[in-house]
Every structure is written in structure tokens, then in C-alpha cells.
Amino acid sequence: MQSIEVFFLPHPPVAIPGVGQGRERAISKTLDGYRTIAQKIKKIKPETIVVVTPHGHTFSNGISLVGTSNVQGDLKGFGVSDVSMSKKINLPLTHLIQMAFEENDLVSVVLDEVIAKSYGTQPKIDHGALVPLYFVDEVYDDYQVVHVTPCGLSARDHYNYGVAMKNVIMSFDETVVMICSGDLSHALTDDGPYTYNPYGKLFDALVVEAITEKSPEVLLKLTPKEVSDAAQCGLNSYLMGFGMMDGYDYHSEVISYEGPFGVGYLTGYLANDFTTLTKSKQIEWDAEAIKAYEEKKKLEDGFVKIARQSIEHYVRTSRKIGREVAMALVDKDTLKELMHQKAGAFVSIHKEGNLRGCIGTIEAACGDLLDEIIHNAISACSSDPRFNPIEERELTMLEIKVDRLYPSERIESLEDLDVKKYGVIVEEGHKRGLLLPNLEGVDTTLQQVEIAKKKAGITKDSFTIYRFEVERHE
């Protein structure tokens, strides 16, 4: 059983002299960190480097791996024509990793030339991979690569991807190291690439803490808003690196951190020789999630109970829950309301703060509200075109809301809207878009209408607006 070392490296093109034109002197600590890690890699002499980069071909619902025999890249996009790189892909290891993802119900795609073309792309060494490998190549270049790009799934999912990769690499008959490429907050100062946000410094401090204290859970607790406010590109790469350490004690160190140009750059590493077992954080978090799930179910009202059971039964059996089973979940008063009323309803599913599915009806499409909720819950978990169908392993992590819609009324002005109180429907010809009220991140009526227009594909300035109220159950 081999040891595994994970290296955290940023990827500012300015670090390379031809691009930096002297500006690289402002990141001297980072340059020293690159060279320290390059020497460590030279000493290990890995036959393969797994490089995790956020700037490859990114999918919303799964990891991508390069599946061509060779891959090239350059920095022409950064104004330099004489910096390029060509690497051989370790295809056997790439496919073993993909198989491990599949066995753990983790979505991934291997981009060979044919599949990449079908997505309108071409595999390449992007700057997220090229910049760190440039410094490695200065002292050691006798290696193949596995090129991995994180996706739009949750932080916890990325940790799980890392665990699956660890299990493959532990038994692989070659020496392998991992480089997790990522810059930290891009919002550290007013003159940075993003608008200054005070949370940027807090995020970077949490990453440093996660490494030095060996506590990736501080990163998994971040809310979607906190991640967005940080304006970073390294979180998912880092979490995959932490997943590689799961179940074992390990050494960790931050070699350098600095924040010039308004961007946080960190170099550091995790090292594991698999001699000291510890409790798997993955197993620990699964147990905590089950406990929280059971407590959450106790607090849910009848509408949500029906939606949740409809989802869970369908995911497990591919069958619709029976009415009698659904009826037994609620008290008499709620059952009377559900069976004697007809109304539109939306079922929204979130996982770890991120939308995972949402389907609904503006007006009643079923015989009663009970069937409306059952039908839309099943559709939300299986037929939302924006997401893969929900899998059984996700069921304990879902937050579910049910919105009962009241009849809509036409309005003439945005002044008649209230983002907290009213949902909005916009219509132009046969196009129709709807947005529910009181959604996080929607703060103005103009935002509300523009999002609804975008959903409907309405580009004209002439359209009809309706408002409606909802009764939210969660």
C-alpha cells in the first residue's frame, strides 16, 4: 500500500515570468511555495500526477476526466506564445477512477475525442493545470497525468469523489500524487478582479484552518451564499484532496499564503502513509445526516410529509405512492383540505442549500390537492430537465418545500409586486414563465420579473404580468 501526498497550489498565470513581466515579484511567497512543492514531488518521483483543476470542461452534474492519449495546452490566451505543454494521459488509471465513481453513484464522464466533440469542446491542459505543472517540470517531468475537473455538485459530493479516488490510488501499482489547483478568494480588495467582499478574507482563513487543523468540515458547513461571496475557484478541488485522506491520520502544512492582486494564493500539502487509522469523516457525517434527517421529518407538516414520502417511494421503487399510504401520513383536518381542494402546487427540493429539483403547476391539473402534490413531487425528483434524477443515496440530505398557489391576478405595474409576498407570472404569446415569492437572492421586483422572463425565453419589452400568493409548507 503506497502513501499518498496531496498538494494545494494556485494557478495565477502571472507567476510565469513571460506572463508576469516582473509582476511575479509581488508573489514571492507563492513562488517559493511552488518550488518547495516541486522539490517534494521530485523526491517522490511519481509515475502519475492527478491534477484537479477548476478550469477544464465543467459540467453541472458530474466530474469530467480527460480521456485522450495525450493532451496539450499553452498560455496564448494570456499573451504568451512560447509557454506550452504536452502530457501523456494515464488512461488505465483514468478509467479505474471513473469506474470507482460509477460504483459509488458519483456522476462522471471521460472526455475522449468523440465525446468531447459531441459537447463542442476539445480536451486541453488549461491554465489551472498548466501553471502548477510548469513549476514541477522545472525539476521533474517524468510522469503521466490524470486530468480531473470538478463540477457543480455539492461540497460533500466533491469530498466523496476524493474518497473514491483514494480507494483506487491506494491499490494502484504506481506511485501517484495529486495536485489540487485552485485560487482562494478573488474579492480581497477593491482593486481585485471581483468587487470587494469582506467575506473573502474570512473564507481564506477558513481554508487555512481546514488544512492546519485537519478539519475539512469547516468548509463543508459553508452556505451557498458564503461560497458565492468568497468568489473563489479552489473549494471543490481542495475538498477532493481532503477526501483522499479520509479514514487515516495525516500530516498537513500550509507552506505559504498571500493575497496580492486582490486574490488569495495558498500553497500547502497533506501527506498520508496509511499507517494510522482514524474514524472516517465520511461515515461520521453520514451518521450525523441520518440523525438530522430523522429530526427534520418530525417537524415537517402534512404537505411536506406527503411530498417527501412520494419522492422516497418513487426513487426506491420507480412507482407512485398509493393514495391510501399518503392519506395515512396526515391528520384529519389536513386530509380534508387536501382531498376537498384543487389548486396548483410547486414542490421544491434542495440539497445542502442548492436547488436539486423544482416542478409545479400554476393551476390544478389533478383531481385534488393531494394528487397534485404527489404528482409534482415525483416530477421534481425525476423529471426536472436541469438535473439528473435524484438517487437513493441523496434522500437523507434533501430539504423539501411545498407551495400551494392561489389564483393569479393581472397587474399593470411592478409597483403592484412584492418579492416577499407575491410570486410572478409573465406571458408573451405562448411563452410563460413563473417565479415563486420569497426566494433567496431575489431582492427586487425587477429581478423577479427578469428571471421569470428568462425562464420563459421572453426577450421583448411587451408582455403581460400576473401576481399570485402562495401558502408555503416546509
Strands across the major sheet, in which order? 6-3-7-2-8-1-10-9
**First and last CA, distance:** 48 Å
Relevant CATH superfamily of the largest domain: LigB-like
Oligomer: single chain
From the coordinates shown, what is the CATH architecture of the largest domain? 3-Layer(aba) Sandwich
Number of strands: 17
Indicate the proportion of strand residues: 15-25%
Class from secondary-structure proportions: alpha+beta
Write a structural description.
The protein starts with a strand and ends with a strand. 42% of the residues are buried. Strand 9 and strand 10 (265-272) form a beta hairpin. The mean pLDDT is 94. Helix content is 37%, strand content 22%. The longest helix has 19 residues, at 281-299. It is built from 16 helices and 17 strands. It has helices at residues 17-20, 28-44, 91-103, 113-118, 127-137, 155-171, 199-212, 217-220, 224-230, 235-243, 281-299, 302-317, 323-327, 332-340, 369-382, 445-456; strands at 4-9, 48-52, 63-66, 70-74, 84-88, 108-111, 144-149, 176-181, 251-258, 265-272, 345-351, 354-360, 398-405, 409-411, 422-428, 431-435, 464-473. Helix 6 (155-171) packs across helix 10. It folds into three domains: 4-282, 3-Layer(aba) Sandwich (Protocatechuate 4,5-dioxygenase, Chain B), CATH 3.40.830.10; 300-401, 2-Layer Sandwich (Glycoprotein, Type 4 Pilin); 406-474, Dna Ligase, domain 1. Strands 6-3-7-2-8-1-10-9 form an eight-stranded mixed sheet, sandwiched between helices. The chain is α+β, with helices and mostly antiparallel strands and 474 residues long.
